[in-house]
Amino acid sequence: MSACLSVGAIRPDAAVAHVSPGLISSSFEAHVSGISPRAPGIGATVLDGDQRLRLTVASGHGAVVLGIIGEPFLRFGPGGVFAWSHSPTAGNAKVIDASQAAGTPHWIRVSTGDSFAWHENRLRPVLHPGRGGAVGTWRIPLVVDGRRSVLRGTEWYGVPPARLPWAIGALALVAAVGAAGALRPGRRTDRIGSAAAVAAATAWCAGWIGVLLYQRTSAIWLGVSAAYAISVALLVAAALAEPDARRPRLLIAGAIGLLAATFSLPEIGVFQRAFVLSALPADLARACVVIGLGAGAGAAVFAALAVRREASAARPPPGG
Predict the structure, then answer these.
(1) What is the DSSP string of 111-155?
(2) Percentage of the chain exceeding pLDDT 70
(3) What is the domain partition of the chain in residue ranges?
(4) Cα–chain-centroid distance for residue 223?
């Protein structure tokens, strides 16, 4: 389970206004429309709903991002990514600090790679909309290979999802799995609790793997995430299959379910806002939370009821 705990510890950066600290959803989402005129070798992605912009400039090309007053802000090219020390935008985005901005104007290297992400206020709308849909456009001026270009996009607002159906689904899982613990003990009955624990742990990890992939979408991170999922599934299955006695197996299933439900709680932000900051589709990410919470809590209740029933059955009758 340690591998999955590592995934669970990863959170998107807290973003002010549109994304509350600790949550993984946003009411706003900015989309990139393109660069005009077209500029080969330039890629742009919006992160954290509408909070950060990541620009990638392929080798052999150079680009300068202009700031809020038209000043040079970031330079992509040989040697990495550099920020202009006297750029108000660089200071406002906290790309550089006050000590770096002092002295003679100069370029400060902020990355040795060809990609860089920064907090970009120009992606946000000025007014809060009354209904869902496109609420405005945004533009970031660039100079690509010595030629003026503009990165353009659209800002969207989404209405929060209906929460009642998801709550009913989670409660139904808790009730169905938990009630099975009160049934006559047997292998088939025990499999319900074990299956619920495995499903809860898998859903919990899948939810945070989606968050991880949203932040780092390279093939390497995809492989790492797949390894996490496989290792967690194998560890949980091995833990449940190992004990010969029924009570230890029930207690392990209950403990795994309780952990999965507990660590799924930080993900309930997916029900508070329209856009989920995950590589998974929004409804799939929400389903993972429902399964993690519902099946996990259900497995814990199942184990408690089954152990109690077993203890009652083993207790000698009064006067015996």
Answers:
(1) ESSSEEEEE-GGGS-SS--SSSEEEEEEEEEEEETTEEEEEEEEE
(2) 82
(3) 28-157, 160-314
(4) 17
